Amino acid sequence: MLAAMLATLLGDIWRRLPMAVRRRAAKIGQTRFTVTVAAMLFDDQGRILLLEHVFRADRGWGVPGGFVGRGEQAEEALRRELREEASIEVEDVRFVFTRTLRKLKQVELYFRARVIGTPTPSSFEIKQARWFPLSELPPELSQDQRKLIERAMALDENSR
């Protein structure tokens, strides 16, 4: 009974605090993390677009994407990254899935979209942009990237 009364009192106090104070108080208990976006991009022949990255921690090849900037919406970040890395635009953008990497304190948002234009490396970060049949992925592609592609394909098949 006392706990319920205390909770009610604290709730009343909380609701009366100015919004700015409530936001600051809520941030105290939040951990910091980064957010990234990536795209599973397939052409009409069922090939996937992969980029060979200069700075990628694993072996270089992977799906295109990058970090979401402060105040940026996820789809805006995806479009920006695709323009910056491969000089392409996209349409029919669909959210596919998310995953959290606890060690890195990172949230990753994955999308599918249709490519407009011809992928061409347009950043010093990208060595190559190539379409690969799913049966002929580069041997240097990490197991993690392969699993992400398989996950996107499975989710797409289930949505049909």
What does this structure look like?
The protein is α+β, with helices and mostly antiparallel strands and 160 residues long. The chain has 2 domains: 1-30, no CATH class; 32-158, Alpha-Beta Complex (Nucleoside Triphosphate Pyrophosphohydrolase). It has helices at 2-16, 19-28, 74-86, 143-158, and strands spanning 34-41, 48-53, 61-62, 65-67, 89-101, 106-116, 126-132. A 4-stranded mixed sheet has the order 4-1-6-5, with helices on both faces. 22% of the residues are buried.
E-strand count:
7
Q: What is the H-and-E element order?
A: HHEEEEHEEEH
How large is the share of residues in beta strands? 25-35%
Second-tier CATH architecture of the largest domain: Alpha-Beta Complex
Put simply, the count of helices is: 4
The helix/strand class is alpha+beta
Essential attributes:
4 helices, 3-stranded antiparallel beta sheet, 160 residues, 2 domains, single chain, Nucleoside Triphosphate Pyrophosphohydrolase, alpha+beta
Write a brief caption for the model.
The chain is α+β, with helices and mostly antiparallel strands and 160 residues long. It is 34% helix and 31% strand.
